[in-house]
Design goal:
This protein is elongated. The chain has a domain of 85 residues. The chain has 6 helices and no strands. By secondary structure, the protein is mostly helical. The longest helix has 35 residues.
């Protein structure tokens, strides 16, 4: 599923770059892409430090900074999108840096994946070598150390 998205986004970026280049000129298009990258990088730095401060404040108050961590992931993906040349990826990256749209992305992700994320896991993995499998249940031994604190 990821490969078709990559191909479609790349083709859309090329189409947009060529269309804008024909409308305003090639040099202006390149300068516009560079300017959006600089604006995006300054927003990325500002929002990253802001999210880091909110996470530190949450930890100081004794709360788990789960939302702040998810915001950090959205900011990271937005930064990657901003570093990718093109207008479509820049627009998506800038949307990820806006606090109101970032909350929308996080809420949408949690609504779609809440059951998978918060489902209790009851799987256990036990590895036995071929020699150990041939022994009976009585002969299974668990080695370890034990001590008591006094």
């Amino acid at each position: 599923m990821l490969f078709p998205i990559f191909v479609v986004v790349t083709l859309a970026e090329i189409y947009l770059l060529v269309s804008v280049g024909q409308a305003i000129g090639g040099l202006s298009t390149v300068l516009l892409v560079i300017i959006t990258a600089f604006i995006g990088s300054s927003l990325l730095r500002q929002q990253g430090w802001s999210t880091m401060a909110k996470a530190q404040q949450s930890m100081a108050e004794g709360r788990t900074p789960a939302i702040e961590m998810l915001e950090g992931v959205v900011i990271l993906v937005s930064g990657i999108l901003l570093l990718t040349p093109g207008f479509l990826t820049d627009a998506l990256g800038l949307l990820g840096l806006m606090p109101w749209s970032r909350r929308y992305f996080i809420n949408h992700f949690l609504e779609k994946n809440a059951e998978r994320v918060f489902r209790p896991r009851s799987s256990v993995f036990i590895h036995k070598s071929g020699a150990a499998e041939s022994k009976s249940k009585k002969e299974d031994t668990i080695e370890g150390e034990f001590w008591e604190d006094k």
